[in-house]
Design goal:
alpha/beta; 2 domains; seven-stranded parallel sheet; binds glyoxylic acid; binds NADP nicotinamide-adenine-dinucleotide phosphate; Rossmann fold; 9 helices; five-stranded parallel sheet
Length: 310
């Protein structure tokens, strides 16, 4: 019985050491150099596993994502149908996302880019500054992360609304649900934050039509996935002044290619998928709890509905 750690672009040894501390009686292996016999593997802990690798473990009982998103697992056409996929529900990651979204909303609200531009020109000029209650923030995705961000912004005084698949009721937050209610939310969002999972329904959701429906001069913050955004439509919206600014943390191709127009665009603030990551020292106890539950045959929080895609 063993757990295999497969992660691209992350330090697998850090996760292995942290998980061994939590579960000293269990064998942990690291793919590919220390994978051992494939038939030993019961559970895979993964970030962006190469397509086809998970299908090589004949006794696999569960796949645990090292992130909140799971499209990096579900995109694998060889993923065995019957194996449950579990997304990470990590309060540390959630706090990091709340920090990131709050920081960017406040930066846009307080016109930080305009002040930096003025500084570069040695201009001393006070800009008109509305208060938070006159600024409407819309959040696409009211799940584990979106809801916490919405509540943090509500507590700062912003007018906050959120959009989800199923109806919700959250104190002090306007709630919208389903395809019919997407545009009523978008049309009133001075700042629109995307915290959706990437699914067949949400891919390319931020396109020319959606951007055109936002109030002129609005701002976008995308911390969901790059494939939510139609890049050419975003550039058009920025160049025409329909959008005044976009903060992008995630991209269709990561790392962002060196010659990509986003790098130099004056209307884009860019982060290298840095908004929120699970840390071994925090999240290994959560993963260990899930591993214990799976081995005991119990149900585990964060089970993904493969049909919905999240
Ligand atoms: P979650 O708890 O599963 O929440 C997803 C939310 O999206 C739910 O409110 C869900 O509605 C809504 N939703 C899904 N499909 C929809 C649709 N077609 N129409 C309307 N609403 C829809 O996920 P989470 O933990 O909050 O994470 C969200 C995403 O953030 C992840 O999937 C990942 O892509 C991204 N993320 C990014 C970073 C980063 O560093 N940039 C870090 C972590 C996560 P219901 O509530 O009705 O189901
Ligand atoms: C990071 O992007 C995650 O999905 O946790």
């Amino acid at each position: 019985m063993a757990v295999i750690i497969i992660c691209r672009g992350e330090d697998p040894e850090g996760w292995k050491a942290a998980l061994e501390t939590e579960l000293p009686d269990l064998k942990f292996r690291v793919w590919p150099h220390d994978a051992g016999p494939a038939e030993d593997i019961d559970i895979a802990v993964v970030w962006q596993p190469p397509p086809g690798v998970l299908a090589t473990f004949p006794r696999l009982r569960a796949v645990l994502s090292l992130g909140a998103g799971v499209e990096h697992v579900l995109d694998d056409p060889g993923l065995p149908h019957e194996v449950p996929v579990i997304r990470l529900i990590d309060p540390g990651l959630r706090s990091a996302m709340v920090e990131f979204v709050t920081m960017e909303v406040l930066r846009h609200h307080r016109q930080e880019s305009a002040y930096r531009l003025q500084q570069s020109r040695r201009e001393w000029n006070l800009l008109h500054q509305p208060l938070a209650p006159s600024r409407h923030v819309g959040i696409l995705g009211l799940g584990y992360l979106g809801r916490a961000c919405a509540e943090s912004l509500r507590n700062l005084g912003f007018r906050v609304s959120g959009w989800s698949a199923s109806p919700k009721s959250i104190e002090g937050i306007g709630t919208y649900a389903g395809d019919q209610e997407l545009f009523p939310l978008v049309e009133r969002s001075d700042i629109l934050v995307c915290l959706l999972p990437l699914t067949a329904e949400t891919e390319d959701i931020i396109d020319a039509t959606l951007l055109g429906a936002m109030p002129r001069g609005a701002t976008l913050i995308n911390a969901g996935r790059g494939r939510h955004v139609v890049e050419a439509d975003l550039l058009d919206a920025l160049d025409s002044g329909q959008l005044s600014h976009a903060t992008l943390d995630v991209f269709r191709e990561e790392p962002l290619p060196e010659d990509h127009p986003f790098w130099q665009h004056p209307g884009i603030t860019l982060f290298p998928h840095a908004a929120a990551w699970a840390l071994p020292e925090d999240a290994s106890s959560i993963l260990a709890g899930s591993i214990r539950q799976i081995l005991a045959g119990e149900s585990v929080p964060g089970g993904v509905d493969r049909r919905r895609g999240y």
